[in-house]
DNA sequence: TCCCGTTCCGAGTAAATTACTCTACTCATT
DNA sequence: AATGAGTAGAGTAATTTACTCGGAACGGGA
């Protein structure tokens, strides 16, 4: 089961991806717009920052933005960051392997065999889908306008001459 | 994440499948042999019985046995019975659908789209693998003896003339 | 330099879930 | 009727989830 935390994270990231290139987005705006409890969202964004997915800017004119392009942010990484390993059992996790204590011969464990299939299938999907893919798939079937600009508390931010200069620092 | 409950259930079912045709197996023997807390196992077996996967017999000579052949018991059913739906989100569950409250247009939800893929992949695997498949795959790669008979408290039960007459009642 | 807007951090907490245990009951067979 | 089994429901400790609170740290502008 995907936790609310991970779901909120995905929603926030999608919003940030749509606002990509428009400068930092305030936690407060994001929370209001996506109807996510603000304090909870703070935790989540911080996690995502520690994962290298987001970057932040403090003080006036600050907020959060993507650290990488939406094409390079995969759902697997996001969900692992917030919910832990994708694998249904620790003994089939590639990113967080741990032996099951009760199972003595791992090789001969049928449950493990099948769960490994499940893990692989899940990982193939989630590590193969980027934020950009997600957005594209949604927009393709329901081509809505690129959305009124996300930020609202800060009305007159300049959107920067050329789009999306992503600071690498 | 697969719960211990579901894992215990699978282990117990595998053992019962291997003992299929040898008459009822005692909870106590199953618990000891599979190193599962007995009282907990009782709950689990009862669940499986309610699901129509197991049948039981009370009194002396009683115990649990499969209600269907190992070929007809699919992992998906077992796991759903104990851990609930396979789907990572209620809104993509086929067996336990529920709309997400915050998501207004389900059709246009990208998260849902991807999670549906995950659910489908998982279900394809788990609803496509039977107890018999599981056992066969294990035995094929490590062809161990069919195991010393499971029961030990009751030494001299007659194994029934022809194998495996499964009562349909 | 001081203020203010903003993120960052540690702790705390209520509710739900998990992984069990306890006690007693019911039912079948001998 | 005694005994050997499963059946039922309540209870509970530990963990996880989904948050909240209060304030410290930092950055930029006046």
Automatic annotation (TrEMBL), chains A, B:
Residues 142-157 have a biased composition (Basic residues). Gene3D superfamilies: Winged helix-like DNA-binding domain superfamily/Winged helix DNA-binding domain. GO terms for cellular component: cytosol. GO terms for molecular function: DNA binding; DNA-binding transcription factor activity. Keywords: DNA-binding. Signal peptide: none annotated. InterPro entries: TR_Rrf2-type_CS (IPR030489), Tscrpt_reg_Rrf2 (IPR000944), WH-like_DNA-bd_sf (IPR036388), WH_DNA-bd_sf (IPR036390). Residues 137-169 are annotated as: Disordered. It holds the Pfam family Rrf2. This is Transcriptional regulator, BadM/Rrf2 family. It comes from Pyrinomonas methylaliphatogenes.
């Amino acid at each position: 089961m995907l936790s609310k935390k991970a779901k909120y994270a995905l929603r926030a990231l999608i919003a940030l991806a749509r606002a990509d290139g428009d400068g930092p987005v305030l936690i407060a705006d994001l929370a209001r717009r996506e109807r996510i409890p603000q304090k909870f969202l703070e935790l989540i964004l911080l996690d995502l920052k520690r994962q290298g997915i987001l970057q932040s800017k403090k003080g006036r004119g600050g907020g959060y933005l993507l650290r990488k392009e939406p094409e390079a942010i995969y759902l697997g990484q996001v969900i692992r960051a917030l919910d832990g390993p994708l694998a249904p059992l620790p003994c089939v996790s590639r990113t967080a392997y741990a032996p099951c204590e009760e199972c003595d011969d791992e090789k001969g464990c049928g449950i493990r065999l099948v769960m490994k299939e499940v893990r692989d299938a899940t990982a193939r999907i989630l590590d193969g889908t980027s934020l950009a893919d997600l957005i594209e798939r949604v927009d393709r079937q329901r081509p809505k306008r690129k959305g009124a600009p996300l930020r609202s508390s800060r009305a007159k931010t300049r959107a920067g001459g050329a789009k999306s200069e992503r600071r690498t620092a």
